[in-house]
Amino acid sequence: MACFAATFAVVVLLGFISVSADKKDACDVYAAVGQSPVLPFSYEKLTSSHVLRWTHNNTIVFYRQGRVSVGKPDDVSAAGSLQLRNVKFSSAGAYRADALQPNGTLAKTWAGRLCVVDKAPKPEVRYVCDFKFSAVNLDCVVAKPEGLAFSWTLDKKTLPGETRQAMRISLNQLKGERSFTCSVVNRASQETSDTVHPACKSPPPPPLLCFTDKTVKAAAAGGAALVLLLITIIVVHTLLMCLFLSQWTLEIVYI
């Protein structure tokens, strides 16, 4: 029984540690490299008599007590939110805001984690006409598709359900000039491709057998020679038959 209780306590403790670690590593605000996010602390009663302190990974990045001694006055809003500018990967981490009463007591606090990710890449729409299946295959090409969500528009209207990187559409839907774009989005930014107008013309009919004049003349000459040869054979055969019949007739008369 004691062993079971000890084991149960260890499991509960490990679960608590795991949940705490997950919460600690969770992101409250996402931003792409180069963006200027605002950390959402808001204390409507904030005045110049309050102490306002912002820390990043326990380092003070803004401090105001009557006047600003760390940071710049325009780094915070009237309600105390922190404006970051042109963030880098090093800007990620834990942020904390504390607003203190003039007597030093805590008026309001906020804590959150900023996660900085790459900006979503600009996609490019490429297409291939598939006349065998009477369709056009479209592909939303990006350098690194991992972690991106895709969407498509047809004539500036979002196509519901089309969330894959590639899509196929019937050629019957391309009557007239139709326009397509694709968009990619991550947790912090979105990019849209240039507009593409697929042009899928029906393939030409199979080419007819064509010959050059030289080939035609050679074939005609060969045909004429063949006809002449056949005529000669027929004439010779006819003459031989006539000669044979004449000789046979004379033999009968003499007999």
UniProtKB/TrEMBL annotation:
UniProt signal peptide: 1-21
The residues covered by the Ig-like domain are 123-193
Query: Which residues span the membrane?
Result: 218-245
Localization, UniProt: Membrane
**Which InterPro entries did the record assign?**
CD2/SLAM_rcpt, Ig-like_dom, Ig-like_dom_sf, Ig-like_fold
List the GO cellular component terms.
Answer: cell-cell junction; membrane
Q: Say yes or no: keyword Glycoprotein present.
A: yes
Query: What keywords appear on the UniProt entry?
Result: Glycoprotein, Membrane, Signal, Transmembrane, Transmembrane helix
PANTHER family recorded: HEPATIC AND GLIAL CELL ADHESION MOLECULE, SIGNALING LYMPHOCYTIC ACTIVATION MOLECULE
The protein depicted here goes by the name Ig-like domain-containing protein
| Gene name of the encoded protein | LOC115391956
